[in-house]
Amino acid sequence: MEIISLVCILIALAAMMYFGYRGTPIILVAPLCGIFVCLTSGLDLAMGMGTTYLNGLGNWIGSYFFTLFTGAIFGCVMTDSGAARSIGLKLSSLATT
C-alpha cells in the first residue's frame, strides 16, 4: 500500500505541474490533486483534506502573507502610476536594438 501511495503522490505532483504549465489556476488543481491522493491512498477524505491539507495551506499563507500582500500593493501602485508600462516599453526598446 505504501508503494501505491507513493506512486499516486507522484502522479498528483505530475498533474499539478502539467496543469500549472498549461495555465490552469493552481488554486483549483491543488485541492483536486489532494483529493486524488486521499482517495487512492485509503485516507479518510475529511481527515486528509481537513487536517493535513488545510493545516499546510494555513501555515503557508501565514508565512508568506506579508510578502504577498506587499507585492500586491506594489503591483497596484506600479499599474496605477503608469510606471509598469513605461518600464516595459523601455525594456522592449532596449531588447529590440
Describe this structure in words.
The chain is mainly α. The protein has 2 domains: 43 residues; 52 residues. It is built from 4 helices and no strands. The protein is elongated.
In short:
By secondary structure, the protein is mainly α. Helices cover 90% and strands 0% of the residues. The chain is built from four helices and no strands.
Please name the defining characteristics of this protein.
2 domains, 97 residues, mainly alpha, elongated
- Domains, number: 2
Alpha-beta classification: mainly alpha
Number of helices: 4
| Helicity, as a percent range | over 70%
Share of β-strand residues:
under 5%
Report the span from N to C terminus: 59 Å
List the helices and strands and how they pair.
Elements: H1 2-21, H2 26-41, H3 45-81, H4 83-96
